[in-house]
Design goal:
The complex is a heterodimer of chains A (155) and B (424). With 155 residues, chain A is of the alpha/beta class. Helices cover 46% and strands 15% of the residues of chain A. Chain A has one domain: 3-Layer(aba) Sandwich (D-Maltodextrin-Binding Protein, domain 2), CATH 3.40.190. Chain A is built from six helices and five strands, in the order H-E-H-E-H-H-E-H-E-E-H. The longest helix of chain A is centred in the first third of the chain and has 23 residues. Chain B has 424 residues and is mainly β. In chain B, the strands form three sheets. Chain B has a 16-stranded antiparallel beta barrel. Chain B starts with 19 loop residues before the first helix and ends with a strand. Classes of the chains: A alpha/beta (155), B mainly beta (424).
């Protein structure tokens, strides 16, 4: 048991180090919104409510239009919800086939996310820090959530 | 025309013989899109207008007990009885969603599944227009799913849950497939979560199965109800109430018997299930990272004298380990009183024991322990295996969830199931 805990600790330390390394080369995912969205920050719970289709409203009252960056989707939802894509897809299957909500729009690359977000007040997406452009407002680096998660799951 | 790029289709194309069903369906999509082309020609724009999605299950279920047929819900006329059947859980659904603009959308969903007539004739499961004037309000009208209990309106979508099938004690009895009516959803952010509620009203439509030869048309059954939900972090809680005024029309060899009994109003009233039912439910789901747990409870208050009040519920716990998610579920249904066996008028040409079978049909008394695992083969395909150990106590042995029962049945059944579930 102790050996397993130790192994977990080493794994967590390695992960944390890996994340730091990623953050340094601009690979960290950052939430982005339109400059006129009326928000400057977003909590993890608020992001879950929007991206998981619970309530598509930005804290400023505007209707939210979430956009997924398809190549980074697995990483994003792991950070947001600690779930695999299979779990996320199962969740959406329940909502989609009961006519409740549709999953976020899928963008194929960072340029598409930035284009959508720069042209729609309610749009919210995520891109890697190195891909940020002037037309969007960066909100929060998702490494923050990873650190929170690490902190909350550490023994 | 743009096909909405769906999350679960963004990965590289899956390979392998096991995916043939998905591939086949993908080949059918362009044809459907072409057919819809004339209507949608103008609908191309920056935002996608039409999406085509589907779900399906290929399943095999084996009941090791050869004295009673196990069914998934009361729409099914037969179930495995000492043998293996593929029709119990296999199904295919196709859904078209059309974004009309101006906050309007339309959805049509067809399902092919083993039905009351013993075939797989496709049926219209959903067909509604939705108006969402803002992000806090949805109004829908048309054909809608059965949303009496949490998860009930997605119980055909095997990929959306962990089990081979939803617990039969909870989702099997008194589950109609669909209603024609309207519903309204209101959402409000509260604390870190979202408080939302739904009100609905309409008429049930569709047919159930009494047994292999008799079906029951429930058209004309009125229902109205609602539920209130709070979702925060990993928690989802729901309270629900539905009032249902049941109307049944029996078709098959039993029908003349019912006509005969209808001439004796006192007797008929004692056996007829037609009257008001009050369905109360509580649901609690916890879903954080690898851990998933659910607790659902239902209480059925029945006004017809021949139908007892009943409790039903289940608790299910699962923990994901890599691609595997093992789970365990305990589910139950039990009547709160014995049904009254009606005094039938003497001298009528009635089969012996018919009075007992009327009351037994609505009296549940059983518990199931289920153990199983889901293996996520791909991001839109899962394999599942499950074993159900069912114990039906003597009062519940004539219950509507069992088919072709032998009189000496000891109330035990062991059901092995394997399914392949997918969405596309």
């Amino acid at each position: 048991m102790a050996a397993r805990t130790l192994r977990h600790l080493i794994l967590l330390a390695a992960l944390a180090w890996g994340c730091q390394a990623l953050a340094d080369d601009g690979a960290e995912l950052v939430l982005v919104v339109h400059p006129d969205s009326g928000i400057t920050t977003l909590s993890r719970d608020e992001a879950i409510n929007i991206f998981m289709g619970r309530h598509r409203q930005l804290p400023s009252g505007i209707t939210a239009l979430p956009v997924d960056l398809a190549p980074a989707r697995a990483e994003f939802y792991q950070l947001l919800t600690d779930k695999t894509l299979a779990q996320i897809n199962s969740y959406w299957a329940r909502l989609v086939f009961s006519g409740r909500a549709s999953p976020p729009r899928q963008a194929q690359d960072a340029a598409e996310v930035l284009d959508i977000v720069a042209n729609s007040r309610g749009a919210i997406g995520y891109v890697r820090r190195r891909d940020l452009s002037a037309g969007v407002r960066p909100l929060v680096g998702l490494a923050t959530w990873r650190n929170l998660q690490t902190a909350s799951t550490a023994p | 025309m743009t096909r909405y790029r769906q999350g679960w289709t963004t990965s590289t194309t899956p390979k392998g013989a096991i995916l043939n069903a998905t591939t086949l369906i993908r080949h059918l999509l362009p044809i459907l899109l072409l057919a819809a082309g004339p209507v949608l020609g103008e609908a191309t724009g920056q935002w996608p207008a039409l999406s085509v999605r589907g779900f399906g299950t290929l399943g095999l279920a084996h009941n090791s007990n050869d004295q009673a047929g196990f069914i998934r819900d009361v729409t099914q006329p037969r179930g495995p009885k000492g043998d293996t059947r593929w029709d119990l859980d296999s199904r295919l659904g196709l859904q078209l969603d059309l974004d009309i603009g101006n906050n309007l959308s339309a959805t049509v969903q067809g399902i092919s599944r083993y039905n009351h007539a013993g075939n797989f004739d496709p049926e219209l499961a959903w067909g509604f227009v939705k108006f969402s004037p803002d992000d806090s309000l949805d109004l829908r009208a048309g054909r809608l799913g059965w949303d009496i209990y949490m998860l009930a309106d997605s119980r055909d979508v095997g990929y959306s849950y962990l089990w081979a099938r939803p617990p039969v004690e909870y989702y099997g009895p008194l589950q109609f497939s669909k209603i024609n009516g309207a519903d309204l959803v209101l959402r409000h952010s509260l604390g870190n979560g979202v408080l939302w509620g739904k009100l609905f009203a309409g008429q049930a439509t569709g047919k159930l199965s009494l047994d292999a030869r008799n079906s029951v048309d429930v058209a004309g059954t009125d229902l109205a109800g609602g539920h209130i939900n709070y979702e925060t972090g990993p928690w989802l809680a729901r309270l629900g109430y539905t009032r249902l005024d049941l109307a049944v029309d029996i078709n098959g060899p039993v029908a003349p018997l019912m006509d005969l009994l209808a001439q004796f109003p006192e007797v008929f009233e004692a056996i007829s299930p037609e009257d008001t039912y009050h369905l109360y439910s509580v649901g609690l789901m916890f879903d954080e990272g690898p851990l998933q747990a659910q607790l659902m409870l239902g209480y059925q208050k029945s006004e017809p004298p021949g139908v007892p009040d009943a409790n039903q519920g289940y608790v299910s716990v699962a923990y994901r380990m890599g691609q595997w998610t093992p789970f365990a579920t305990v589910s139950f249904a039990n009547a709160l009183s014995s049904a009254l066996t009606p005094e039938l008028p003497p001298g009528l040409p009635l089969p012996a024991g018919i009075g007992d079978s009327f009351s037994a049909n609505t009296t549940p008394d059983q518990t199931t322990l289920s153990l199983g695992a889901r293996y996520d083969l791909w991001e839109n395909i899962a394999l599942k295996v499950q074993y159900d150990h069912v114990n039906v106590r003597s009062d519940g042995r004539g219950y509507m969830l069992w088919r072709e029962q032998d009189s000496g049945w000891d109330g035990r059944a062991g059901v092995f199931t394997a399914t392949l579930d997918f969405v596309f």
